[in-house]
UniProtKB/TrEMBL annotation, chains A, B:
SMART domains in alphabetical order: cNMP (SM00100), HTH_CRP (SM00419)
Source domain of life: Bacteria
Keyword DNA-binding annotated: yes
Taxonomic path: Bacteria, Pseudomonadati, Pseudomonadota, Gammaproteobacteria, Oceanospirillales
Protein name: Crp/Fnr family transcriptional regulator
InterPro entries: cNMP-bd_dom, cNMP-bd_dom_sf, Env_Response_Regulators, HTH_CRP, RmlC-like_jellyroll, WH-like_DNA-bd_sf, WH_DNA-bd_sf
SUPFAM superfamilies: cAMP-binding domain-like (SSF51206), Winged helix' DNA-binding domain (SSF46785)
PANTHER family xrefs: CRP FAMILY TRANSCRIPTIONAL REGULATORY PROTEIN (PTHR24567), REGULATORY PROTEIN YEIL (PTHR24567:SF26)
Length: 244, 244
DNA sequence: CGTAATTTTGATAAGCATCAACGCTAGTGG
DNA sequence: CCACTAGCGTTGATGCTTATCAAAATTACG
């Protein structure tokens, strides 16, 4: 077990795992499935009986509206767990699709009950992850409801910048961002046209440089100020429950 | 135990409880505290060490923005658990305030760990409640990002109409709604002025009648259509895990 | 190298915010 | 019981932010 899997690494952020914990987690990653970019994992309304761990690639959850538009709710990075939202539901509440080629591992809801039975630490960590996802959603909601187009865009990109630091997927001040302007607009409640204009403005101001799938932040702190970014919602952990 | 407490009744919606489960839950409601309307339970940034069960009265969580505006994130009804969001955090991410006089019961995060240890059923139910709250947030996010002022307002009121049915706090087609137009605006990302205009329009169309703290829905289904209301996100339950 | 998808740019318009003034209602003290 | 006051709700006028439509420019891809 020299090379930790993505999810084990993710869980270790929350607390120390016993060998038994690691074995239980490894069980959840039994059946890795390769998935192509743009492929849909499930649609709103599908029967919901399993979660998914995302081992490789980016994904997002979305909702189609009656007027044909689409809202992107969450962007998942490698190591994230997908579908926690639907634990208490029989149907999927949102669709999930890949942003690029990747690997996912399915495991049934019932197996989570097993985990609850076997490991107190993992129970607490799963609960913490659910609470962390709630915090991300809350911040997104505030972002959408109360901020300008400039702030929304700055906020999303800065959030990605911070989240990618944790997974060590950052490259200096530059990150890979496999999202089209259409995706960004769908996530931010903006038209792709307005996303384009706003990105142009940021470029002219030297706040953000975008080329192909990369984004460079020449002055990350200036971007954070523009976004009125507060990072409290990303600083989670439950160590204190166990090591007093 | 003839008269179930609010929270036990709430939990029973998710599954059958053993006597031990009920005893554990009763422990969480040990120290009821009376709270006046408009009083603040906690502020963003306060140390987070406990949850709260809301036994009586309505409450809401909110965030103050730098420009002085306020976003209301969640509206809590009697029986709801407050503060689950911060299980994995040391600080409160949002403030919480009462909408009217009420009663709350505090219990520390650590006691939840105890519950995890003692009862598999309650572990699953707590997880289900967290997932249900995530579903509510998701729907609110979609509402704010993608719908018009008319739809947002119709959606919020119809959601309350449905949630109040579950707690049997409905009175024919009329509900009590202790929210000012300012509150509604803060929840919907609208100015109170625009809320007023929209309510007037609904009144003239016979969709909604508002007087003092009451709202009447002469034709609930018409309102649901106006809101493009999908009720999947309210139909939760985890019975299927336990009785086969 | 050709074709499709994405991004950019310009012009116009919708939706909602903001400001300001006025009316109503509920709660208060005389 | 009534007059007074403060908060809440209503209405009108104006303007900003962002959507929408359409077309051109660029990039990605087979």
């Amino acid at each position: 077990m020299s090379q930790d899997s993505c999810i084990i690494c993710h869980f270790k952020h929350y607390g120390e795992l016993s060998d038994n914990d690691e074995a239980l987690l490894a069980e959840l990653e039994q059946s890795p499935t390769e998935i192509k970019g743009d492929q849909i994992l499930w649609q709103e309304g599908d029967v919901a009986r399993e979660f998914c761990t995302l081992s490789k690639g980016w994904a997002y959850s979305f909702r189609h509206m009656e007027d044909g538009s689409r809202q992107i709710l969450e962007i998942y990075l490698p190591g994230d767990i997908i579908g926690l939202r639907e634990f208490a539901f029989k149907e999927r509440l949102t669709g999930v699709a890949m942003l690029e080629d990747g690997v996912v591992c399915h495991f049934p809801h019932r197996r989570l009950i097993n985990v609850f039975r076997e490991s107190l630490t993992l129970s607490a960590i799963f609960f913490a992850i659910s609470s962390h996802q709630q915090a991300l959603l809350t911040e997104r909601l505030v972002n959408l409801a109360r901020r300008s187009a400039r702030q929304r865009l700055a906020h999303l990109i800065y959030e990605m910048y911070v989240r990618l630091e944790r997974t060590k997927a950052r490259d200096g001040n530059s990150i890979r961002l496999p999202l089209s302007q259409q995706h960004l607009g769908d996530a931010l409640g903006l038209s792709s046209v307005h996303v384009s204009r706003t990105l142009t403005a940021f470029r002219e101001e030297g706040l953000l440089l975008r080329s192909r799938q990369r984004v460079e932040l020449p002055d990350p702190e200036a971007l954070a100020r523009e976004a009125e970014f507060g990072d409290a919602y990303l600083n989670d952990g439950i160590d204190h429950f166990f090591h007093h």
